[in-house]
Amino acid sequence: MSRDVKILAIESSCDETAAAVVANGRNVKSNIISSQISLHTLYGGVVPEIASRKHIEKIDQVIAEALESADTTLDEIDAIGVTYGPGLVGALLVGVAEAKAISFAKNIPLVGVHHIEGHISANYIEHPHLEPPFLCLVVSGGHTHLVKVQDYGVYEILGRTMDDAAGEAFDKVARAIGLGYPGGPKIEKVAHEGNPGAIPFPRAHVSEGAYNFSFSGMKSAVLNYLNGCRMKGTEVIQADVAASFQQAVIDVLTGNVTKALEETGMRKFALAGGVASNSTLRHAMKSQCEAMGAEFFCPSPILCTDNAAMIGAAAYYDYLAGKRDGLDLNAVPNLRLGES
Ligand code: KG4
Ligand code: ZN
User: Fold this and answer.
1) Residue 338 domain-assigned?
2) Residue 87 CB less than 6 A away from ligand 1
3) Ligand 1 pocket, 86 CB below 6 A?
4) Are residue 290 and residue 315 in the same domain, yes or no?
5) Mean pLDDT score, 107-114
6) To the nearest whole percent, how much of the chain has pLDDT over 70?
7) Which ligand is nearest to the CA of 118?
8) Is the pLDDT of residue 204 over 90?
């Protein structure tokens, strides 16, 4: 039997400092995440300068812990996978500089990974039989992409958001109804107590591009609704606003996925990204797939939000395809999927 290919993966694109050891792309030996959420909560959102400083403080410790809990050392690592974009430039630079330093000092090949490719690849970890081609919806704080995964590392973007990302809309609406940061999990929790049919927020259909999304109108509709209540002196039922907004987002997301499954004829669908940890969204997508005879995949919630195991999964397939980066690898804050 051939030897395992072990990847040390590093992720620092936003507010999680993370490192993982992944064997053969799907076997997670360790997955360490140091979250800065409680720090940024004080400011109502991620403060880039604070994020970079905290990454610097934590990164060595997180990597040491990832190696230790995988019961391995750098001498047994075949490649280092690191997120180099998209994300906050200062935050990305910490992971990239660390990965380059280890690569140089220990002469280990370096593989730069696209963060969204990481989110998509999180699906490989718990679903050993999932192989491309499949349709994937990536819903995170910075991105909303409907992607045809044609092969490992080969993507065709069918649709994207024209304005806010789905997670960004959750965060902005949460702030407006007094829930604070991070918005997604807080809206989900409160929405369980509310009526999703209470307020008919609009479901935007974008005329440009069959599978594109728009969420800024929905966010404005929530703000207008809150303003209207204030002017009329009517009570705002926070749980109903949260549940109705969440339902509107879910309807738009499932609508485009249904259309894409119908029109492409694909029969495998995967959900990915931080918003994919929303249980109401997961259930809605799963039932829709079942109704259409499509297989449904979704990572566990801890692999949906930012982590390094997903970067290790993506790096493995890039490594197998011969992708190698040099010590000139740089952070690319606006890196687009499919570009290198
Ligand atoms: O993928 P992620 O961890 O980071 C980015 O790459 O952006 O996603 C973070 C986003 C945030 O906007 C957060 O509010 C949202 O995912 N999110 C959720 C839930 N958990 C996280 N949105 C809805 N429901 C959730 N349970
Ligand atoms: Zn992410």
Assistant:
1) no
2) no
3) no
4) no
5) 98
6) 99
7) 2
8) no
- pLDDT over 60 (residue 340): no
Q: Please classify residue 331 by burial: count the beta carbons closer than 10 Å to its beta carbon, then call 0-12 exposed, 13-18 middle and 19+ buried.
A: buried
User: What average pLDDT does range 65-94 have in this prediction?
Assistant: 98
Q: In the predicted model, what is the mean pLDDT of residues 74-82?
A: 98
Asked, as a colleague might, if the bond just before 299 is cis with ω within 30 of 0, I would say: no
* Shared domain check, 161 and 255: yes
Q: Is residue 312 assigned to a domain?
A: yes
Q: Is the pLDDT of residue 264 over 90?
A: yes
Do residues 166 and 278 both lie within one domain? Answer: yes
Q: Give the ligand 1 atom nearest the CA of 115.
A: 6
How many domains does the chain fold into? 2
Instruction: Compute, in angstroms, the gap from residue 83 CA to the centroid of ligand 1.
Output: 18
Same domain, 274 and 163: yes
Q: Virtual CA dihedral for 11, 14, 17, 18, nearest 10 degrees? A: -30
In short, whether 170's Cβ falls inside 6 Å of ligand 1 is yes
Element spanning 110, H or E: strand 110-114
Ligand 1 in reach of 85 Cβ (< 6 A)? no
Do 14 and 63 belong together in one domain? yes
Distance 138 CA to ligand 1 centre (A): 11
Domain at 185, CATH number: 3.30.420.40
Tell me which residue range forms the domain holding 10. Answer: 6-121+304-320
CA nearest to 18, candidates 51, 43, 50? 51
Amino acid at 166: A
CB 151 within 8 A of CB 135: no
Q: Is residue 4 predicted with pLDDT exceeding 60? A: yes
